[in-house]
Design a protein that fits this description.
Largest sheet: 3 strands, parallel
Number of helices: 7
Radius of gyration: 17 Å
CATH topology: Rossmann fold
Helix content: 40-55%
Shape: globular
Number of strands: 5
CATH class: Alpha Beta
Length: 185
């Protein structure tokens, strides 16, 4: 039965934030960790997390989100081969045993949870109005479900995980702030 709740993102100062050392316990890296670490748009610890990749977990939806770039990049662009090569090298470092694969029941629960978050935040002026929003929120909910079941702490910059954690007290999340990418010379 759906809960009648209203959600808002909490003040970032009240959220658990990633420090300079690896957090204890099992970690699950969200998609943005991979992207921001590669682009240098986050704290240095993100690169450390990728260096320790075989010791971290990844949710299956993250693999799909990371593979999305393969279809999105223009094959005729001169940088595409380099970017895809770096992406492929990174993906080969993810061991199959560390991928958390959702069950059919997880998919149904994620759809319901994503819908609940969308309904709960609708009054705050941030509805999930377009298909991309619904897909991303469902992927986040699915990631939250498999992480909570495995006892992993999610590392992310995605504030939607704050909303998901407010609905699921078993979900542990540590956030980080994106920084500006270093200038290319």
């Amino acid at each position: 039965m759906p809960r009648d709740v209203r959600l808002e993102h909490r003040d970032p100062a009240r959220l658990p934030m990633l420090g300079e050392a690896l957090p204890p316990g099992e970690l699950l890296l969200d998609t943005n960790v991979f992207i921001n670490a590669r682009l240098g748009r986050g704290p240095v610890i993100l690169r450390t997390l990728l260096e320790h990749l075989p010791h971290s977990f990844v949710a299956a939806p993250t693999l799909a989100e990371l593979a999305w770039i393969t279809g999105r990049l223009d094959p005729s662009h001169p940088d595409t081969a380099r970017v895809l090569g770096a992406q492929a090298a990174l993906l080969t470092r993810i061991e199959a045993a560390t991928v958390l694969v959702p069950t059919e029941a997880d998919w149904r629960a994620a759809g319901a949870l994503a819908g609940e978050v969308a309904r709960a935040r609708a009054g705050s002026g941030s509805p999930a109005a377009i298909a991309v929003d619904r897909f991303e929120l469902t992927a986040d909910a699915l990631t939250a479900i498999v992480a909570a079941r495995a006892g992993c702490t999610i590392i992310t910059e995605d504030r939607d995980f704050d909303l998901l954690a407010q609905l699921n007290p078993r979900l542990r999340v540590i956030f980080y702030r994106r920084t500006a990418a270093p200038r290319q010379r």
